[in-house]
Amino acid sequence: MSMAGNLRKVTGLGRVGGLRTVARLARRRPRVDLSHPARSPLGSSVVNCVTYQDGVRVPGCADLVDAVRLVRKTGEGFVWLGLHEPTDREFTGIAELFDLHPLAVEDAIEAHQRPKLEHYGDTLFAVFKTVCYVEHEQLTATSEVVDTGEIMVFAGEDFVITVRHGRHGSLGPLREELEADPHQLAKGPAAVLHAIADHVVDDYLSVTDAVQADIDQVETDVFSENGARLDAGRIYQMKRELLELKRAVVPLGRPLEDLATRPIRVVAPEIQTYFRDVLDHLIRAKEQIAAFDELLNSILQAHLAQVTVAQNEDMRKITAWAAVIAVPTMVCGVYGMNFEHMPELHWRFGYPLIMAVTAGACLAVYRGFRRNGWL
Predict the structure, then answer these.
(1) Which of 189, 200, 117 minimizes the C-alpha distance to 155?
(2) How far apart are alpha carbons 342 and 337 in whole angstroms?
């Protein structure tokens, strides 16, 4: 029996009607491997579906319904189902099979949720904002620095369902790391939830380190020789991208605090110790972001001050040159009047004398401004 075919029918469970019908129809489907990191070959949202017992992957467990029935009958192990941007139709049968709350299902499908932690009976629903640093050759006023996505996690006594939205945040490497540590994976769905939270927060720290390099470059450019000519749009763009990062990181503090301190049925006390470590890392990321915000405000104020100083310098130069030009303008204005009797008007050396006097006056004014630093 093919797990892929069965999942395809389970996603339409309400339409087909019943697990028995699902199982019968699934026998007609060819066997398909769903262990690859991309979307299912069938075009569905299923990325992976694996059963674990004592922290070890159960081989040959090819049917989702049978896998769920097995772990619930024996009371051992759990099923980990990974989805990527499922549609409402695809998720309907899965929600019925695992008895997921409609409100949580709606949030998982629609995405664009705030980081949160909610309890629906014996099921825990967590939302994490994933972040990714966007590489760029040069920071401009339109550069994208931070890209965000989402990971929703349904955690029960015997199952974990991860729903990923966005172009990044693949959980394939994380699954491999967990499978390499059966002792940790044997602790159940709570261990998977912790690993996802730890993975997401580690990405926060990596992105903040990369963002710091961009901010340092902007700071260096602002205080360079031509800092006043820097495009202020670069600073505003960094503030916008930092705000996007802040929206992902800051709201996660309360859910992690609950996971680390409050008694939760799905989360064993020994796992809460690990969540406290993740919370410490999150606090560090929050402090870095707050420091970046203050630093960008200071950089922006320094840039505006430099622009003001540069404008004052330009105005002083313009005023000084206007004063120099005012000397010949005044002389020309006097001798341009239509008076018949004017000094040296008909003298042979009158014109050269006036030009020499004018040039000398202009030179004296220029040297005065130059000595005072206006030119």
Answers:
(1) 189
(2) 9
DSSP state of 135: P
Q: In the prediction, which pLDDT does 150 show?
A: 93
Model pLDDT for residues 24-48, shown as the tens digit of each residue: 333 333 333 333 343 443 346 777 8
Which residues in 218-253 are b (16+ Cβ under 10 Å) and which e? Answer: bbebbeeeebbebeeebbebbbebbebbbebbbebe
Residue 344, amino acid: E
Average pLDDT over residues 309-329: 78
Return the pLDDT at 132. Answer: 92
Q: Give the 3-state secondary structure of residue 161.
A: strand
- Write phi, then psi, for 153 (nearest 5 degrees): -130, 125
Tokens of 347: 């003298």
Question: pLDDT of 85-119, one tens digit each?
Answer: 888 888 888 888 888 999 999 999 988 889 999 99
Between CA 368 and CA 375 the distance in angstroms is 9
| CA dist list (Å): 260 to 52, 194, 253, 263 | 25, 10, 10, 9
Does the structure show a pLDDT above 50 at 23? no
Please give the Cα distance from 333 to 38 (Å, whole number).
83
Among 275, 276, 280, 290, CA closest to 245: 290
| 3-state helix vs strand vs coil in the chain, percent to 5 | 60, 15, 30
| Residues facing residue 154 across a β-bridge | 125, 161
54: left (phi over 0), alpha (psi -120 to 50) or beta: left
d(CA 155, CA 261) in angstroms, rounded, equals: 18
Spatial CA neighbour of 298 closest among 306, 287, 288: 306
pLDDT over 90 for what percent of the chain?
29
At residue 283's C-alpha, the angle toward residues 277 and 288, to 5°, is: 135
Q: Give the span between the Cα atoms of 227 and 300, in whole angstroms.
A: 11
- CA dihedral (67, 72, 75, 81) in degrees, to 10, reads 50
Nearest alpha-carbon partner for 192 in 148, 150, 149, 157? 157
